[in-house]
Structure formats: C-alpha cells, structure tokens
Amino acid sequence: MQKIKVENNFVWIILAAIRIYSANFLKFCGYMLFPVLGQILGLLLIFCLAGLYAVYLPELMEKYPAFKDPSTMILCIIGIIIPGLLIFMKAFWDYLVAYGALNSVTEGFLTTGRIYDYPAHKATVTRYSVKFIGLWLLYSIFWLVSCIPFFWVVGAVLFIYFILIFQVFSFEPETSVSGCFKRSFQLIKGNVFRTLLIMLVIGTFTHVLFVQGFSVFFDFTKLTQVLSELFQETLVGYIPIDSINDKMLSVNPSFDMLTPVKTANFFVYQIVAFIVIGFTLPLRSITWALWYKALNDEKPNRINNKRVTKKLDPEILDRANRKYKD
C-alpha cells in the first residue's frame, strides 16, 4: 500500500482521523478495553469491598475480638484495597501509555494501512519510561497551576500551544521533557486558530455529543436505573448528603438540595462520560498525530542543521510485513 500523505488542512485532518478511527473501531476498542474499564473495576472493588468491611465490622468484632485491635483493622483494610488498587494502577498506567503508543499506531497505519501489534507500539513509550513520566509530571504541574483562577486565561492559551507535547515525545525521541513543550509551542505558533478549531470540533464530539448519545442509550436500556439503584444501596449510603445540603444551603439558600437518587444518577453519568471519553482517546490521538505531521512538514525541527523526524520503528514495520505478507 502507498503511504498516505498528510495534508496541511484542518478539515482534512478531522475527516481523516474520523475515517481511521471508524474503520478500525473494534480494534481501538479492544486496545482501550482494560485501560478504561480496568480503572472503573479497580475503584469499584476498592469502595465495594471497603464498604462491605465497614458494614460487617461490628459483627466481626463481636465474634472475633482480634478485630478490635487497631493494627488488625488497618491490616484488613490494606488487604482489602490492594487488589482493586493494583488493577486501577495498572489500567491507569496503560491509559497514560496510550497517549504515546497511539501516535506510533497512527504512523504505522499511514505507512502500512493497517492497525497491528499494539505491544510493539507500546514499547515505543515504555523504553523511554523515565522521560515519559517526567513529561506527565510537568504537564500535571501545568494543569494544577492553571486551576488557579488568576491563571485561567493564560492556562487556556498555553493549553492550545502545548497540545502536541505527546506527539513530539513520540516522533522526536531525542527531545527533552522541557523540549517537548518548546517544540509544541513552536509548531502551534502561527496556527493557533486552526488548532483551536480542531480542538473544538473533536472535543465537542468526544466530550459532549458522544457522551450525551451514550447516556440516552443507557436510559433506553434501563442501565441507568439499574446502576442508580445499585449506587443508592452501596456507595451513596456512605455519603453525608444531609450534612452537605446544610452547608450548601448556608452558603446559597436557593441551592437545589441533593437526594440519594440525584447523587446516584450523577455517579452513573460520570461513569458513562469516563467510558466514552476513554474509548474515544484513539480518535483524539490520531487527530493530533496527523496535525503534528502536517505542521512538522511546515516547521521541521533542526538539530545541527539536519532535519529530525522520527521514522516508524523498523522492527514494527518488519513485524507488519511478516504478519500481513500475502
């Protein structure tokens, strides 16, 4: 297959990303299955098992005096949360790795026309784990600072300029952590408006329209009602709703008071949103990988007067050729 040429046109970028994602939807869903659902499963295990322990603790203390010992209680709590915590941490790490691996997947598709060998693509990130973690730490600090009201406007602007840091990490592996931010800034400079349009279109689809559509599906299939009743009987029962209402009413007398049903429905909606946003991560990654490649053709990074652009790992290409050889 002839290599797909990326066009420097934001409409082409969006449509191409949607085509690639749609044509390989099941493969992308399979890849994101554990990173997304594993986080939910881990958290549910933690809270459900801890809740059951709290419910049966008085009975256990009455039958077995050893449970009255604080050290025993702490050990039991640790033992209860460890399985769910391990599942959550593994899924969360895989989700973070996907930010880099999906760039390599996109490059592979542009070169071979196929989606293949996710472990090899993940290796393009894990072999630089220290730098990758450093990139996420610096990015997290940026987000924390941006949450301060005084920095909202500056943070919003810089978010546009830093949107390609993970693409720089993947395609220019020689670039340092701080260099990823600088390089992204360089690429976006002069292309802010088009980048913002891409963000608005893709963000509206993945964070609003798809979420609302999936919520309607949950309502139609009665899954919302089933999960809401489950949360009302478990998680919501441990939330001091009355206390929260009293505090909020003291601040705002017109506050719409919380109820167990409203609170449970809120958790259901958050889960739906998390699932949809998580499973559409490949669409966003493909979009920004294509946008990076388009802008990189305009503004190639130069080190020692030589153009620097990462090529697809020959090992990955070799696997593709062997696996899909006619």
Description:
By secondary structure, this protein is mostly helical. The chain is 77% helix and 2% strand. The chain contains 14 helices and two strands. It has helices at 10-23, 25-63, 70-112, 118-126, 129-146, 152-161, 165-171, 177-188, 192-220, 223-233, 241-251, 260-279, 281-298, 314-323, and strands at residues 301-303, 306-308. It has a two-stranded antiparallel ribbon. The chain starts with 9 loop residues before the first helix and ends with a helix. Residues 303-310 have low confidence and may be disordered.
Architecture blueprint of SSEs:
Blueprint: H1 10-23, H2 25-63, H3 70-112, H4 118-126, H5 129-146, H6 152-161, H7 165-171, H8 177-188, H9 192-220, H10 223-233, H11 241-251, H12 260-279, H13 281-298, E1 301-303, E2 306-308, H14 314-323
Antiparallel strand pairs: 1-2
Helix pairs in contact: 1-9, 1-13, 2-3, 2-12, 3-4, 3-7, 3-13, 5-6, 7-8, 9-12, 9-13, 10-12
